[in-house]
Specification:
The chain is mostly helical. The chain has two domains: 47 residues; 106 residues, AhpD-like, CATH 1.20.1290. Helix 4 packs antiparallel against helix 5 and helix 4 runs parallel beside helix 7. The longest helix is centred in the C-terminal third of the chain and has 23 residues.
Amino acid sequence: MTTPGRYRESRMRTLSEAELNEEQRALVEPLLKRSRGGLQGPMNILVRSPKFTEARAVLGDFTRLESGGIEPRFQELAILITARFWSSDYEWWVHVPKAIDLGIAETAIEDIRAGRPPRDLKPDERAIYDFLHTLMTDRKVTDQVYDRALAVMGEAPLIHLIGFCGNYGTLAMLLNATETHTPVVPDKPLEALDG
């Protein structure tokens, strides 16, 4: 049962390192070197399926570590759009401060959180927002939306951006399905959007 202002427990309790089997231990050591959260949050989910995690890591590492021509500002905007689409408080909580640090307007971030078309995006950010938001909500994009995003990104980076969102969408689904929450209950949790 959920108490007001508190989360219910995650569906996957946090494992201790002592509970890990040999395959999980082999997975955890390199992952813990890259993860700041230890066996918390996403890591606690991913360790349950080492083979999936190894396969996902190829895409995850590529999309996180190889910029593919995507500016960090666009990466963070893409993560926020994806987190909002999936109502993933965990991803939102981690990436809002990064987006702000990279210059994305707080008013735009609040609009995305509220499910409104964001004000105060720069023209290139608007093209990326329109492309990703339309793709996620309509499952396709018009020529005009595509051409604007293409003009900002170029072909290869635009493909990379779609894969980047797919990676974070997978993570959001894992976090949501297991009810893995942020360490602190957010003041404004992301409610599911209509449509």
